[in-house]
Every structure is written in structure tokens, then in C-alpha cells.
Amino acid sequence: MMSLKTLVVDDHEAARVGLTQLMEGTSVSIAKTVEDGESALRCINEEEFDVVLIDVQMKKMDGLSLLEEIRGDHPDLPVVLFSAYDYSVYMARAVANGAQDYVLKTDELEVIERVIQHVSTNRTSCPGGRLDSLRSKLCGSDGAGKAHEDFPLTGRESQVLRHIAFGLSNREIAKSLAISVETVKEHVQNILRKTGASDRTDVAVRAVRKGLV
């Protein structure tokens, strides 16, 4: 059985120890555990890992900020976010910032192992998994792209609207859609103009109320 060298980043010792014990005898080898983002970045620069498993909520540097740092210097390193919270905003930001997948601390051990195996081998989210499904909603052509008299938007504008509704910044939207920040700004202005919305919050609330997001 191939052993996947995994770095765990979590500021709770019980979580680090518990996960290490749970993974014993599986294909996932918890090679090292650290309690903060700075320590994680040092480890990643000094050693090679197959996967990094990161807690979303940490005090020194949250998991999403750490993910962004990792992507700057290690764009191909598989990263899975690990959380107690099934929050769509967290997952949307994970998609935008380049995480391969997202698992919950309440998921069964087999699920966590399968996700780590998949992202290590394929560098993509598990088909039908949390991030795969959300990425389809954010970047697909359905949903907000459907014609609606109050939202006469192009396909790309509809995609941007979905990202806005999930609370993503222009920079995160740009990364998610692989377009420039300036292009995102233009789309946002077009969306506000076409819908008559006063700001991003207004247009997001209206889109959700009408079932377009």
C-alpha cells in the first residue's frame, strides 16, 4: 500500500494527536503535525509532502490565509481543508484560493482517506465531493445564467454574481474564474448597472431571494 506523506496543520493538540492515531494502518501517513501556519510553511519549504491537511479556523493564521501563502510558492502541492464547519462561504473561498478539497472533522475515516488519496493522485477534487459540487455551481452555466427580467446578465456576469453571493472578493473571483481583477470589476459594475442594485450586498440578497443563486 502506498503511504501518502501528509502534513497536518491544526492549532488543537487533541485534533492533531487524534487524527494521527486514526490514520494508523491506512494509506495516509501523518508524517508531521504543526500548530500554526508559520511552522507549516517552514516544513513545506524543508520537506516534500504528498498532501497538506489544514484546519480552517486557527488563531495565528487561518487555514484560508495559509492556503493562499502555499499557493504562492507551491502551486501544485495538494491541499485539503479540514473543518468542523460545513460553511458554504469557507468552501467557496477554498475553491477560489486553490484547495483541492474540503473535509469535515465529522466525516468518516474512510471518506477522509479517500479524499486524500484522490487529491494526491489526481490533483483535483473528488468527483461529487463538496468542492467539486460547489465549483460546478460557481463556474457552471446553469442557475443565475437563466433568463430573468430583473437579471439580464451574460453567462460570465452570472458566474460573477454567484461568487458575489458567496461573499468572495474581487481578487478571489478573479482567481476562481482565471480572469483579471480589472475584468471582475467591470463585470461587477455591469451587474449593478443592469439590475439597478445599490451595491454588492443588495444584488446578492436580491439574487438569493429570487432563487437565482
Extract low-pLDDT stretches. none
Mean pLDDT over the full residue set: 91
**What is the molecular shape?**
elongated
Radius of gyration: 19 Å
Strand content: 5-15%
Helix and strand element order: EHEHEHEHEHHHHHH
Kindly report how far apart the N and C termini lie: 43 Å
What structural category characterises the helix and strand content?
alpha/beta
The strand order across the widest sheet is 2-1-3-4-5
Provide the helix percentage. Answer: 40-55%
Number of helices: 10
Largest sheet: 5 strands, parallel
Tell me the total number of β-strands: 5
Outline of the structure:
The chain has 213 residues and is α/β, with parallel strands linked by helices. It is built from 10 helices and 5 strands; from the N terminus they run βαβαβαβαβαααααα.
What this model shows, in words?
This protein is an alpha/beta fold. 51% of the residues lie in helices and 13% in strands. It contains ten helices and five strands, in the order E-H-E-H-E-H-E-H-E-H-H-H-H-H-H. The chain has helices spanning 13-22, 37-46, 63-73, 88-96, 109-122, 130-139, 155-165, 170-177, 181-195, 200-209, and strands spanning 4-9, 28-34, 51-55, 79-83, 101-104. It has a five-stranded parallel beta sheet with strand order 2-1-3-4-5, with helices on both faces. Helix 3 (63-73) links the parallel strand 3 and strand 4. It starts with a strand and ends with a helix.
